[in-house]
Design brief:
This protein is an alpha+beta fold. The protein contains eleven helices and eight strands. The chain folds into three domains: about 120 residues, no CATH class; about 60 residues; about 160 residues, Heat Shock Protein 90 (2-Layer Sandwich).
């Protein structure tokens, strides 16, 4: 005969019952015995005990000479104890049984929640591991598509002969690059969540050069949208220790988000400074649509996008800020968001002093970190 496997909630319940059984007290045993009886039987039993105790107390008082114990006292004590004790004991029994039922229900719910949480954690870990391991399978064919379409769009081996084919090649190339960017973001975030991201490639790099590289990549987008991009990198003549690619990606993500959600004629500014307490702070502010507190929470959630008209008209997966935040935390830093609906947004990137080397004399702080 095959034994049926025990489900996780049942196993947890059995373990809980075993541990509870090991620490039972005589009082809990009596309480459990009384709980199995009907309420009226339990009440009658407890009332009888109360009557016996009351009569015994009066008898002892009579023996000491404090009162005269007579049949009249005996009868009065019995009647008064029954009239006062019976309703109190009934009510107490009802409350005790209700509390016991609630505790049992709460214990079962706790066990089920623990089981569900454990399953959710396992599923999330499996998802993160799956995505992290998809790098080769997804990137390799995409790189081939991008490479071959780039050859065709630039007609490296001679003219294609038909302008429509050339246009198709450009579309394929642009779409492949866009898709590769999305996949890279997803895989990078999945690696960080799965604990696969490492800082083995960290080196000392020029903070100003990283900022300049990010600026050059985002400026064409700003010019196309009619947004002014102002970068003040005078106070970042220092070296940072970290993964330069990640830091550059953080800057690009935050800058491109600022440009994307700023209307034509708006302004995006980037400023950097070395603080008196050793932190290096980069602030990226815009005059865009801004966000409420709830929208900030959504924007910092993977795949989350604030629900407003301008957001719905912008392409994106909602991974820019969450990925930037995760990469900053990987460097021991912080990403802070200050925003007001209709009044723009400021993203503050704080690198701890342990990541700063060869820094100039610190300047007076302007933004609180």
């Amino acid at each position: 005969m095959t034994e049926q496997p025990t489900s996780e909630p049942e196993r947890l319940s059995e373990l809980g019952a075993t541990s509870r059984g090991a620490r039972r007290s005589p009082l809990s045993s009596v309480n459990r015995l009384l709980g199995r009886m009907p309420i009226l039987v339990t009440t009658a039993l407890l009332t009888s005990v109360a009557v016996v105790l009351a009569i015994s107390l009066n008898w002892l008082l009579g023996q000491t000479g404090l009162i005269e114990f007579t049949w009249r006292i005996f009868t009065a004590t019995t009647i008064v104890t029954i009239l006062t004790g019976f309703p109190i004991i009934v009510y107490s029994q009802l409350i005790i049984r209700e509390i016991k039922s609630s505790r049992q229900m709460l214990r079962k719910m706790t066990e089920r929640l623990a089981w569900a949480f454990d399953n959710a954690e396992r599923a999330n870990e499996a998802k993160s591991h799956f995505l992290a391991n998809m790098s080769h399978e997804l990137r390799t064919p995409l790189n081939a598509i991008i490479g071959f379409s780039d050859i065709m769009r630039n007609e490296r081996f001679g003219p294609i002969g038909n302008e429509r084919y050339l246009g198709y090649a450009r579309d394929v190339n642009d779409s492949g690059i866009h898709l590769l960017g999305i996949i890279n973001d997803i895989l990078d975030l999945a690696k960080i969540e799965a604990g696969h991201a490492t800082m083995e490639a960290e080196t000392e790099f020029d903070a100003g050069a990283a900022i300049g590289s990010a600026e050059r990549m985002v400026r064409p987008m700003a010019e196309a949208r009619g947004v002014s991009l102002v970068v003040d990198a005078n106070n970042c003549d220092l070296m940072l220790v970290g993964v330069e690619r990640m830091v550059r990606q953080v800057l690009i993500n935050v800058l491109s988000n600022a440009v994307k959600f700023t209307e034509s004629g708006g302004l995006v500014t980037l400023s950097a400074e070395y603080r008196a307490h050793g932190n290096f702070v980069i602030s990226i502010a815009d005059t865009g649509i801004g966000m409420s507190l709830e929208e900030i929470k959504v924007a910092l959630t993977p795949f989350g996008q604030a629900d407003n008209t301008m957001t719905r008209h912008q392409a994106g997966t909602g991974l820019g800020l969450p990925l930037a935040k995760a990469m900053m935390e990987l460097h021991g830093g912080r990403l802070m968001v200050r925003s007001e609906k209709g009044a723009g947004t400021a993203i503050i990137l704080i690198f701890p002093g342990t990541r700063v080397v060869a820094a100039p004399p610190p300047v007076k702080a302007v933004l609180a970190s």
